[in-house]
């Protein structure tokens, strides 16, 4: 039977329902993430109702990773000594049927980092979320056309790269920017929530990937829909937070407050989700 496409109003309802489920279930999310993002990513998860644990020691992974609802891996401050823990956690998550979500920060920055990201992709992430330059680097398996952790591409420039990466890896692939794109290689959904000022706060990308992990944790059989919902919810929190922000520092505070206080009416009113297929 042909799969029914979710309509725009259903997308916003789905976003609300998934946030409500995160609040109700408070999923435990293991985050192996970079030093810059630890604070904002953990606070994003707490504000959404999830339970973050920034545990990254190789020695703890065999005991701890099987207990989590989802695993989040982010290579932002990658070193040769931190990579084995990431690989081990991903393997254990997959072995235990837990979803894992990958943020390939600055994937195209160096051959070391690109190789590490391509190796992690072989360990079957459920979702990959990056900016335009990161997704293009992974899809072409080439480094160079990038500016560290920041993107030199619009998200829409990475649409074909995202589709091809999704087909190659079997992961749901999300590209953020003015339009957040989510694809499984066939279906493409765009979420147009968010404000440009989010780019002026470090680790907002890392934090929205952490949020995706929590949303996927409570709806693992619908990772695609959960990813769309998380991106839209984070963007709406940014829009509401921007209303009385004076700049990046106050937006950072307001973002967390808005996410914490989001209600059904605000989500249904503000969500801008549509098909790009
Ligand atoms: N031009 C923009 N307009 C609105 N929202 C944006 C814009 N650029 C980025 N965002 C939002 O900022 C957050 C971080 O995305 P992005 O800056 O692409 O990630 P990264 O920090 O990994 O490069 C996402 O929620 C995204 O939707
Ligand atoms: C600045 C920086 N350098 C290494 S990791 C990192 C944080 C990147 O965060 P984001 O990808 O969310 O902008
Ligand atoms: Mg990033």
Automatic annotation (TrEMBL):
<dbReference type="InterPro" id="IPR029056">
    <property type="entry name" value="Ribokinase-like"/>
</dbReference>
<comment type="similarity">
    <text>Belongs to the Thz kinase family.</text>
</comment>
<keyword id="KW-0418">Kinase</keyword>
<dbReference type="GO" id="GO:0000287">
    <property type="term" value="F:magnesium ion binding"/>
</dbReference>
<keyword id="KW-0808">Transferase</keyword>
<dbReference type="GO" id="GO:0036172">
    <property type="term" value="P:thiamine salvage"/>
</dbReference>
<dbReference type="GO" id="GO:0005524">
    <property type="term" value="F:ATP binding"/>
</dbReference>
<dbReference type="GO" id="GO:0009229">
    <property type="term" value="P:thiamine diphosphate biosynthetic process"/>
</dbReference>
<keyword id="KW-0784">Thiamine biosynthesis</keyword>
<comment type="function">
    <text>Thiazole kinase involved in thiamine salvage pathway.</text>
</comment>
<keyword id="KW-0547">Nucleotide-binding</keyword>
<keyword id="KW-0067">ATP-binding</keyword>
<dbReference type="InterPro" id="IPR000417">
    <property type="entry name" value="Hyethyz_kinase"/>
</dbReference>
<keyword id="KW-0460">Magnesium</keyword>
<dbReference type="GO" id="GO:0004417">
    <property type="term" value="F:hydroxyethylthiazole kinase activity"/>
</dbReference>
<protein>
    <recommendedName>
        <fullName>Hydroxyethylthiazole kinase</fullName>
        <ecNumber>2.7.1.50</ecNumber>
    </recommendedName>
</protein>
<comment type="pathway">
    <text>Cofactor biosynthesis; thiamine diphosphate biosynthesis; 4-methyl-5-(2-phosphoethyl)-thiazole from 5-(2-hydroxyethyl)-4-methylthiazole: step 1/1.</text>
</comment>
<dbReference type="Pfam" id="PF02110">
    <property type="entry name" value="HK"/>
</dbReference>
<keyword id="KW-0479">Metal-binding</keyword>
């Amino acid at each position: 039977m042909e799969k029914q496409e979710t309509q725009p109003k259903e997308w916003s309802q789905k976003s609300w329902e998934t946030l409500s489920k995160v609040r109700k279930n408070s999923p435990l999310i293991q985050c192996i993430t970079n030093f810059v993002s630890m604070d904002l990513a953990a606070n994003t998860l707490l504000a959404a109702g999830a339970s973050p644990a920034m545990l990254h020691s190789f020695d703890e992974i065999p005991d701890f990773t099987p207990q989590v609802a989802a695993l989040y891996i982010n290579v932002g401050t990658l070193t040769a000594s931190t990579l084995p823990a990431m690989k081990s956690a991903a393997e254990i998550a997959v072995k235990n049927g837990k979803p894992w979500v990958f943020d390939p920060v600055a994937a195209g920055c160096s051959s070391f980092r690109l190789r590490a990201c391509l190796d992690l992709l072989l360990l079957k992430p459920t979702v990959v979320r990056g900016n335009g330059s990161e997704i293009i680097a992974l899809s072409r398996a080439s480094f160079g056309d990038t500016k560290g952790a920041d993107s030199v591409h619009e998200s829409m420039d990475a649409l074909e790269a995202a589709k091809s990466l999704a087909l190659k890896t079997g992961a749901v692939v999300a590209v953020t920017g003015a339009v957040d794109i989510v694809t499984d290689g066939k279906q493409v959904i765009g979420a147009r929530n968010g404000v440009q000022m989010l780019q002026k706060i470090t680790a907002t990308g890392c934090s929205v990937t952490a949020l995706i992990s929590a949303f996927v944790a409570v709806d693992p059989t619908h990772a695609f829909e959960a990813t769309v919902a998380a991106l839209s919810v984070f963007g709406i929190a940014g829009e509401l937070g921007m209303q009385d922000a004076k700049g990046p520092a106050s937006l950072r505070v307001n973002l967390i407050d808005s996410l914490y206080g989001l209600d059904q009416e605000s989500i249904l009113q503000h969500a801008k989700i549509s098909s790009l297929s």
